[in-house]
Write the structure tokens for this entry.
Amino acid sequence: MTNETVIKTEDLTKRFGDFTAVKKISFEVKRGEIFGFLGANGAGKTTAMKMLIGILKPTSGNAKIAGFDIYNQTEQIKKNIGYMSQKFSLYEDLTIMENVQLFAGIYGLSDDEIKQRSSELIHKLNLQNQADKLVESLPLGWKQKLAFSLAIIHNPRIVFLDEPTSGVDPITRRQFWNMIYEAASNGITVFVTTHYMDEAEYCNRITILVDGVIKALDSPAALKEKYNTSSIEDVFVLLARGAKRND
Amino acid sequence: MRALKFLLRKEFIQIFRNKLILRAILVVPVVQLIVLPLAVNYEMRNINLSVVDLDRSEYSRRLINKITSTGYFRLTDFSESYQKALNVVEQDKADIIITIPQGFEHELVRENKSKIMIEANAISGQTAGLAVAYSNSIIRDFNNDIRLEWIQQPRMNAQPVIEIVSSNWFNPKMNYKYFFVPGILALLVTIVGFLLASLNIVKEKEAGTIEQLNVTPIKKHQFILGKLIPFWILGLVILSIGFVVSYIVYGIIPVGGYLLIYLFAAIYLIALLGFGLLTSTFAETQQQAMFISYFCMMIFILLGGLFAPIENMPDWAQALTYINPVSYFIEVMRMIVLKGSGFFDLLKHFGIIVLFAISFNALAIWNYKKTT
């Protein structure tokens, strides 16, 4: 982790009609940090993330991603980030290799780079025998690991992960977090939303979002100390109890 | 442009991996081109005829013989009274009644003129119109025959007679298939191309894959081009299959040559696919896209001039055909295939279709938002 700020938001707000999904959130994320975004279903995590990756226009407030403005420099932002959505969104009717080549190609990697990175990726995921199989035939855990590897194939400055481990078994989740640590140690900032409280403990700092508002922002240890609890789960329950949108 | 290369490769892999689509692309044009022109016939044959012959004379028999021997009419009823013939029509067993009055021969021979009554069941105006027209021309023929028998041709024509002889240009044998097949072909390219294009982007919306593309630095026009080019090539392939079938089955070779047709089709497909992609950017689900494209296709086809001539439409409907790209393609196909029109004859059509191509695609790119 360095002192370089890669994400900076100021009073970022998104309203849909009368409904305020995200209300005046402000925070900073440093380069190489693993930044956790916690919240119940409907707390506004995904909405906040979509504004940060440039596919949703904010109602008010400001944010800079990798130094670029989220209002009018969204295309530059897109060159510098990776994204893995909540819903699996690689091409199921393409093979693993074809997906890798497609996304590497779209991000402008040269043929040599594509060759090198794809063989690295296949090797790391232990998919040598599956490289020519259709993605739809893979189990969910592998799909998620593949999606993450593709999200960072172009060495982005920041990778955004939206509930990347939901529905995945504990062993695969552990492997997944090892991949996240590795990416972070290579200088990629990781912005991750989750509602698994054990995963929150793996983050350098976490934000707890309740009804679109930031209720807490600190390292897991500091939060536990502040609220005098033994786990992040207790902190979360304490803060989220008053939520109106909880379902 | 490098991103476009990868998008195109992806799109082609997906098309060739989808066996059903591939088969549909190959089979649909062949089947439709073989079945439809044979089934849809603009000529009337086997018009059910009821005759009321109250004269029962030599001449009335000759007239009836002449009518039934043409092949257009089928004598299904021979009634002794007009009332009975009417009953037959009411039972839908006859389409037309020809009543030959008593004294037909007598008047014809004595007074040089006589009357016949023709009545057609006009539930279908087109059938009735054709039936009456056919019988009129047969009776005129009959009239000429007997006149030739009676009148000794004077050496000098005392009464000059103007005889109208028609010759049919561009389709001398009046073969309706020559007229119909180019239109069907235009329609085929339209339906397959439009449907594939209109469903494509929506499919990615449903699968969520479009979101993954939207967070990449890919350009909007690259994305649209990546969708347009594969279907453009497919459309031209379908057109070529269609020409092969129409040559083998109907022996049709465009009088004006293939080059001009392909040139027009190439631009037309860009316009059509642009419209399909525009639909696709509006719809959220494939179901919605299907509904929109079905609606548009119905209007395009029925106002396209394939089945009902545009000249017969009311003014407001004719005005609508000006903004219907399909009507231009059908017209151009017929003009080149049958008449052999050249590029300068089609300047107006080319100009309009270029405008369509530019505006539809500009709209599609504009309406494709890289946001959710």
